[in-house]
Amino acid sequence: MIGVNILKEGWDRISQAQLDVLREVANIGAGNAANSLATMLKSKIQISVPRAKIMPFADVPDFMGGAEAHAVAIYFHVGGLVQASILLVMPVEKAAQLVEMLLGSCNASLTGSFSDFEYSALMELGNILSSTYLNALSTFTKMSFKPSPPALAIDMVGSILNTILCQYGEVSEMALVMETGFKKDKVDVMGNIFLLPEPDTMDNIFTSLGVIV
Amino acid sequence: MGELFQVGMGDYKLAKPPDKLITAGLGSCIGICLLDPKSRIACMSHIMLPCSPNDKKYGNPGKYADTAIIAALDAMKRMGADTDHLVAKIAGGAQMFRFSGNSSIFKIGERNAIAVEENLEKNKIRLLNKDIGGNVGRTIIFDPANGELSIRTIKEGEKVI
Fold it and tell me: What residues form DSSP beta bridges with B30?
């Protein structure tokens, strides 16, 4: 799942054609991320066609599985010409499965809590996925994206999104969320990647892509 | 049986017994529950930020601690509450991310909590109890009938304040 958040007052002026462009950008990013996931897990990963929806902040948690769903989130701030946030959100049991696939075993599957080593494995996974995602975006838009080190939270989806969305609270009330699913053998293998550009970023992306704003 | 009114991020809602108010998944945001003990009219706000910007363009007052409390007072008064003797309970203001460096967005919970308490005091609302900070997400349910605030978390179970 890939998300793009429109953070300006004029989010509603985003045209259908521009949505299509963003979907394509998300698709390329997700395709690249899926490739690196496939390499790490040594198996084929399929991605779904990205979906795009504009919604109020309050509806975003429901879109991601419900405000009270128990999830692991890995967060990156993206700096450079484009300021944005990237958030990977996955259900706790999917995260435990991923750790098991990567490390051979997972403490969390047995005890319900991840070990420090497993935390770092998840953050590293997040690092690789978000970097490959941004790499594709960078090639496509000819802009540079510089992600921060990862931060991690495990709790209710709503409470995690709270912290991310509140920084945009002053400039918007709506979000455009685009999603792509990652599947292995037709089963969801990972959760969602959200990209939340800060104000002006959308214009920068559109300009760089030659799409008239 | 009353209804359960859902309060979204940046929103506020009123209720009277037997109805209750709920907001799910509070992280750095804060749930402010105000109650007029006489009329049992209650209001729950789910604020996201400490104070409103000078630029009022991004208008929903429910997003900010300062404007949310004023908007709640107005709405409660219109519904017939005595806003001179309100009591409050608050929850939220957590820091959700670990390994987080010193990005200021991770300290927003703390700033929200300070702003909420300041604004309650400014509006002469008595704060009865609070469950603030830590690193847990909270779902809260406020019952105007008895003024109880139930707080549900994944990591620390359930409690009532």
Answer: B47, B92
Q: Is the ipTM of this complex over 0.85?
A: no
CA A26-A32-A38 angle, to 5 degrees, is: 130
Q: What is the mean pLDDT of chain B?
A: 87
Minimal CA–CA distance to B112: which of B138, B81, B86? B138
Of B29, B60, B97, the CB nearest to A75: B97
Number of H helices, E strands in chain B: 2, 10
- B51 in catalytic set: no
Cβ-nearest to A156 among B98, B100, B154: B154
Strand A182-184 relative to strand A192-197, pairing: unpaired
pLDDT tens-place string over residues B111-156: 899 999 999 999 989 999 999 988 889 999 999 999 999 999 988 8
DSSP string, chain A: -EEE---SGGGGG--HHHHHHHHHHHHHHHHHHHHHHHHHHTS--EEPPPEEEEEEGGGHHHHTT-TT-EEEEEEEEEEESS-EEEEEEEEHHHHHHHHHHHHS--HHHHHSS--HHHHHHHHHHHHHHHHHHHHHHHHHHT--EEEPPPEEEEEEHHHHHHHHHGGGTTT-SEEEEEE--EEETTEE-S-EEEEEEPTTHHHHHHHHHT---
Would you call B27 helix, strand, or coil by DSSP?
Answer: coil
